[in-house]
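Reopening this one. Same input as before:
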Amino acid sequence: MLKLKKKKGFTLVEIIVVIAIIGVLAAILIPTMLGYATRAHVANSNSTAGKMRDSVTYFMTQAGSEGYGMFRTHDAICDVDVEIINGNWTVKTSTQDVFLKQYATLWTGSGTCNRDTDPDILNAEERMASHLANAFVELENGYCRFRLVGGMCYALYFTDEQTTAVDDMPPFNSTTGWDVDDFHWGNDEGGITVNGVTVGTSPVIIV
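Same output, byte for byte:
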């Protein structure tokens, strides 16, 4: 019993001091870690947007070689919406009169498919959806919009946080993409809209 009485534990004051120190450290570190996570998400979204832009351009090049691509003129412009819901990709084109019709009327305005669909029997939008689904097998949900000009993908934005258009995203206002003055990001580094949606862009827009 005497040995047990000689053992000394922590006092209440010591415990309170330790808790206070932990609270101060948490208040300092948590915002910093959240900032790292946010920047990493933006960087990943920008990377995905860039890869998606390259993939779309590749598809349009192939379509052109097969006779159902896009007219190679500066005024052949089409905006395209892509919805990704549970692994199903839906491609919607704003206009069909800028595409070639050499051997088939393939551009219908909309098409949905996934990576398991045979692209050889589909319309052009479905073929594009199949191409993207197979190129980005890890994407189950998301949304992107891009502008085609003369068969090239000139500007694209992507988010994995929703499957509809980003309301506060500025529209394409030229054949080369956006006017940087139209951007009003929710933070100083870009990539977060004023409504808190993480968006990747290609070309990358930093304001």
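So the earlier flakiness isn't reproducible anymore. For the record, The chain has one domain: 38-202.
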